[in-house]
Amino acid sequence: MTQMTRETLFNLAMMAGLILFPLWAWIADEPFMITLATKAVILALAGVGLNLALGLGGLVSLGHAAFFGLGGYAMGILASHAQSYSPILETPFVIEGTKSMPVIWLTAIISSGLAALAIGALSLRTSGVYFIMITLAFGQMLYFFAISWPAYGGEDGLSIYVRNGFPGLNTLDPIQFYGICFTVLTIVLILCARLAKSPFGLALNAARQTAERVETVGISPYKLRLVAFTLSGMITGLAGALFADLNRFVSPTMFSWQTSGEIMVFIIIGGVARLFGPVVGAVIFIALEHLLGGLSDYWHIYLGILLLLIVLFARGGVIGTLAGKENAHD
Amino acid sequence: MTDVLLETRNVSKSFGALQASKDVSLDLRAGEIHALIGPNGAGKSTLIKQIAGGLKPDAGQVFLQGQDVTALNTPARAKRGLGRTFQISALAMEDTVLQNVVLGALGAGGSPFRFWKPALKNPDLREVAEEALTRVGLQDHATTRTAELSHGQRRQLEVAVALTLKPKAFVMDEPMAGLGTEGSKRLTTFLDGLRSEAPILLVEHDMDAVFALADRISVLVYGAVIATGTVADIRANPDVRAAYLGDEE
Amino acid sequence: MSMILLAEQVLNGLQLGVMLFVMAAGLTLVFGVMGLINLAHGSLFMIGAFAAAAVAGATGSFLLALIAALSAAAAVGALVEVVVIRRLYDRDHLDQVLATFALILIFSEGTRWIFGSFPLFLNIPPYLAGPVTLPGGIEYPLYRLTLITIGLSIAAALFWLINRTRLGIQIRAGENDREMIAALGVDISKLYTIVFALGAALAGLAGALVGAIQSVQVGMGEPVLILAFVVIVIGGIGSIKGALIAAILVGLTDTLGGVLLPALFKQFMEASAATSIGSSLASMAIYILMAVVLIWRPTGLFGARA
């Protein structure tokens, strides 16, 4: 029980840090630091999405960039039509673009959810290495599609001149945009914490450990995994929309396999199946990128070495090392 | 035929040149324990998989409560009242004992697609789960992690998970495997009482348990049933003696 | 469209296919024998290309460049196997993915550090440059024809190696039963290093050969790696025969899709829209092929296990 408490304490400290650091940066008038924190929070959200499939469901998806990218393009397409005042669709009915974040988020969640449902339905027919390679391949498929589809910038991507709006807030103010992203992350973390303890979470967690048993009590592991994969894709898609809004830019890079790999790296650095694993991992990743990237152009070498050492010698990630290996799935 | 809960009709299965099930016809009637015995490699596990749904027979059918379930997968057969235990415990080792039985309760009563309320605080699920734990004597270990249970306790938990389904028929694959004399005796007593709730198709190597429990015994050799009958019939059957003695030398 | 153009595209597809096979063969062997998924296989492809470009630049000899590519990739492969990979055989796939992803980061940035970010060029040697005229009047680049020949020869050599040699027997035994080959007295860790280095050498050779018709740059390995994964998924993990057939299928689908789909759409829509929709769809053609195979046969065309 003491270890549980330790992890909870750690999580609370993390939350406090995510509130205090941007507040400090705001008071000290360091908008770049706020932007870094925003990036960390959004990438953490993408990782929280993947962690649902990977940590709880045991589904090693190397194609989550697909959903991250779809969320990004949902934002890019809607906002670019709104900024050029041209409807997306005229026949059979008119669909206008929009600059409203809630509408964009909803579109991102629905489109990435549908994509995850389709990709999951196919990929989950297999398991193990096949699943890894197939999710990777589907991610790459969307990457090439984004490159070769000329309507929305092709290889060059799409720029959005002004950040989208949220009712009652000034999203151009870095601290307010950070507040939006942090709130979204907090809500999703609460949902995931509930889900992990819910009947669904219990069954999904069991299916990861012993699919045979889950079948013999009358539950289909395939359906559990498909729902988990879809929810996971939706969360990562939402993160993609926020990420695009942070940069006011979307490009096929969001779909690339490196993006999938990096999202997975957050989880590993932090700790697989830990609620806050991706949050810790994303914060460390951004900090390393900022600190090492300043020292050396080749900071990915250090990231690679760090990652290798974690995989070979510290399998629980940061939280696992600090809070102990037990209770990983409580 | 009214009392037949589980039946295989002319089930056959081959893996390449190896014929693992040859025209197997068995039935399980209300209130009985029907033991399935046979030397190693006789095809018991293959047959169990075809009954439970993990493996499709090449020919023949499987009936559950008179319905042809040959085309159904494992979850669908479980929903229709088939309770199964595994030879090698298939349990969620990282989870607690309670979580394992609640999983069973979830499969039995209601949908796993509920995302908000904690599973362990659901009174209906808990009632079913705790009742099953009490029946096998694990009620004091509810919060123990399954990985920390002794081998014997895991075997008990296997049975408890199957109990939560309130099955119409049990298929148990070597439930006594690895249990000491004491444990086997206790489980024997328990299964003895269980048969009135739902009949048991019992695959078992522990002959003392088989002879103590079985109403009928079927002997499987090289994938085929060479004899079915009461304990006395089987003991007296010359083919069975030949098959067993021949193989054990 | 003329038949000559079509024949050319078929040959291009075949050329892509055999090179994918050379990549995929190493991957599928390593998975079949050691149960390891190796994302860094693309890095070995890149290392081969860079080694070849460097040696060709220094000596001017293409043959020496190929030898350098083979040996550099094999040496790096063997080293990586001994230092990192062998710690991963007993780990789950997630650890394998992450560790080999880490290796990609290290190799890519390391190569960038040594060679810089600008692409290198590896020239086709003069004796292989220029077109040849094939029966039917098809003019086709000699170098690409050479690639097809080399690829098919490697395929033949691999089949011979697997089916006729002592090493092949050990490899096949390793695919079936790891304990058994240890029991037979085979030095299993040596066998693993050899198989890994063999796969690495093939990847490095492919990198050098392909490097002469595209630019040699950091990141060139991963797109090929992912295509090789598609090949393995379609062919079935562990099957060399499946890899060959799937590789050629993928090569042809990719190349012909790029030509035929826009032409097909032009039949019933205006030209510019047809080109953009056609080429977008063509870029997804092999993945659609993969999806279809998956629906039909989840373990691939020649895959035995799930």
Average pLDDT score of chain A:
92
Provide the gyration radius of chain A in Å. Answer: 20 Å
User: Can you write the helix and strand succession of chain B as a string?
Assistant: EEEHEEHEHHHEHEHEEHH
Helicity of chain A, in percent?
A: over 70%
Instruction: Give the number of domains of chain B.
Output: 2
- The low-confidence parts of chain B are none
Helix coverage percent of chain B: 25-40%
What is the distance, rounded to the nearest whole angstrom, between the alpha carbons of the first and last residues of chain A? 11 Å
The name CATH uses for the topology of chain A is ABC transporter involved in vitamin B12 uptake, BtuC
Total DSSP helices of chain B? 9
Give the overall pLDDT of chain B as a whole number: 91
Major β-sheet strand ordering of chain B = 6-7-8-3-9-10
Shape of chain A: globular
Total strands of chain B: 10
Specify the structural class of chain A: mainly alpha
- CATH fold descriptor of the largest domain in chain B: Rossmann fold
